[in-house]
TrEMBL record:
This is Maleylpyruvate isomerase family mycothiol-dependent enzyme. The keyword Membrane does not apply. InterPro entries: DinB/YfiT-like, Maleyloyr_isom, MDMPI_C-term_domain, MDMPI_metal-binding. Residues 13-153 form the Mycothiol-dependent maleylpyruvate isomerase metal-binding domain. Signal peptide: none annotated. It holds the Pfam family MDMPI_N. The keyword Isomerase applies.
């Protein structure tokens, strides 16, 4: 296995084991505690992780009819319904069943990943049966598991993992979404630059510059007169981009064009 693939596998393993550690010893009531992931409890978050990894192992998906009263499952949204099925199936599972299945699935998946001879560009089967490069799949799994690890940590008041390898992979993934957020979703015009100033365990400053034709790029050079500067801490930045917190409730500072900043913040969530 190449070093870059090994790094992604190790990051995934570290984060999924951290998730397992945080869940160890939770009472039945604590498993039902709400997280910032819309509509999902700690049990639901862990069920999602289990369900995705089982699918990637090649296990058949459960045959299950969803209730019609799940407010967080948007009508016509095939992906949210797809994600909800392995979650809803496990809503009656006990704490022991949840921790036992998570441990079993992680062990199986880790053996599969370590034994794989796939190259970074090898096309493999991902979620919903869609083909994706192996490296992209590993990166997305590290990001997804880290995001849900943080959901459970916040729900239980047990912070940690904000500077882990999976956190760094997640940072890079989220930064890669900013050009689209700024140029396409927030419709910031050509010739303008927006600075994101983030402090905390993962500290960085990045500038999204919109060029001719609305094509945006991201880099580390800060212009003298940006259209707007958005400053916050790393955890808040991640929560905003993952749809865990509304901009109005976030601890952030805005300088420059407030209307432009508000348009960016209104579109900053790239996943739920």
């Amino acid at each position: 296995m190449s070093n870059d693939l090994q790094y992604l596998v190790d990051a995934w393993e570290q984060s999924v084991r951290a998730l397992s550690d945080v869940c160890h010893g939770l009472t039945e009531g604590q498993w039902n505690r709400a997280t910032e992931c819309p509509g999902w409890s700690i049990r639901d978050v862990v069920s999602h992780v289990i369900g995705v990894e089982l699918e990637l192992l090649g296990d058949p998906r459960p045959i299950h009819n969803l209730p019609s009263d799940l407010a967080h499952v948007r009508p016509g949204d095939e992906f949210s319904r797809y994600c909800e099925i392995p979650v809803d199936v496990r809503r009656c599972h006990t704490a022991a069943e949840m921790t036992g299945e998570l441990s079993y699935v992680v062990g199986r998946r880790l053996r599969m990943l370590r034994d794989s001879d796939c190259r970074p560009e090898t096309e493999v089967r991902g979620m919903m049966g869609r083909s994706t490069p192996y490296k992209h799949l590993l990166r997305s799994r590290a990001f997804d598991v880290w995001t849900h690890e943080q959901d459970v940590r916040r729900a239980m008041g047990r912070p940690g993992g904000l500077d882990s390898a999976a956190a760094q992979i997640s940072r890079d993934f989220l930064l890669g979404q900013l050009p689209r957020v700024v140029a396409e979703d927030a419709r910031i015009g050509a010739g303008h630059a927006v600075v994101f100033d983030v402090h905390g365990p993962l500290e960085f400053m990045r500038t999204v510059t919109v060029g001719p034709g609305g094509r945006a790029s991201i880099g580390g050079q800060v212009p003298l007169a940006p259209l707007a500067v958005l400053a916050t801490d790393w955890e808040t930045f991640a929560r905003l981009m993952c749809g865990r917190i509304r901009p109005a409730a976030a601890d952030l500072k805005v300088e420059g064009d407030r209307q432009a900043a508000d348009r960016i913040l209104a579109n900053i969530a790239v996943t739920l």
